[in-house]
Design goal:
By secondary structure, this protein is α+β, with helices and mostly antiparallel strands. Helix content is 45%, strand content 26%. The protein has 4 helices and 8 strands. The strands form 2 sheets. Strands 5-4-8-7-6 form a 5-stranded antiparallel sheet, sandwiched between helices. Strands 1-2-3 form a 3-stranded antiparallel sheet, with no helix packed on it. A hairpin with a 2-residue loop joins strand 4 and strand 5. It is elongated, with a radius of gyration of 28 Å.
């Protein structure tokens, strides 16, 4: 026996009309409690996400300061000398000891760029070799450093992997951006 579409559509209304006032109030209370619980969970998750973001950014900044302090032991004046990025009398090109000290101290990845070229890093390519000699990809980070002359904090894809990143420009004595330093950890 087939039901007409109208009869099928009427069934919930017919059923609802048979529910007592007390039952309707109970259903409304259950629905309200469910909505309140859903809203509470949503707000809690949003706040936790914001707090984790704030903590993550604070960690990036702290670890970036460690990298900058390790570089700063060589001096504060950066310059390009021939094809080398120099600080004081020290070449940062190939300075794997500094980036490895950062990794040993706080984990994550540290990189020094001359222009947009990685000259010291502990990030590895898929073949297992350090990514020295690779370039900072075009995009939001590159634009922040080299077009806007500003630091960058936020997500970035590096060699196909998602990272939380911090990049700070390196300036010569005239204020021109000649490179950058970065600290990152996997997202």
């Amino acid at each position: 026996m087939k039901s007409s579409p109208i009869a099928v559509l009427r069934f919930p209304a017919t059923l609802w009309s048979r529910v007592s006032i007390g039952g309707r109030i109970a259903c409304a209370a259950i629905l309200g409690a469910g909505l309140a619980l859903a809203a509470t969970i949503y707000v809690t998750v949003e706040r936790a996400d914001r707090e984790l973001h704030v903590q993550g950014m604070a960690r990036l900044d702290a670890n970036m300061r460690i990298l900058q302090d390790l570089i700063g032991v060589h001096g504060r004046e950066f310059r390009i000398e021939g094809d080398k990025l120099m600080v004081g009398g020290h070449s940062l090109d190939g300075d794997l000891a500094t980036v490895d000290r950062v990794k040993a101290a706080v984990g994550g990845v540290a990189t020094i760029f001359r222009g947009d070229l990685r000259v010291a890093t502990n990030i590895v390519r898929p073949d297992g070799q350090r990514a020295v000699g690779t370039r900072l990809a075009p995009g939001v980070v590159h634009d922040a450093i080299f077009k806007d002359n500003k630091p960058y904090r936020g997500p970035n894809i590096i060699l196909g992997q998602p990272y939380f990143t911090a990049y700070d420009p390196i300036r010569d004595s005239s204020g021109r951006v000649i490179g950058s330093v970065s600290y990152t950890h996997l997202a």
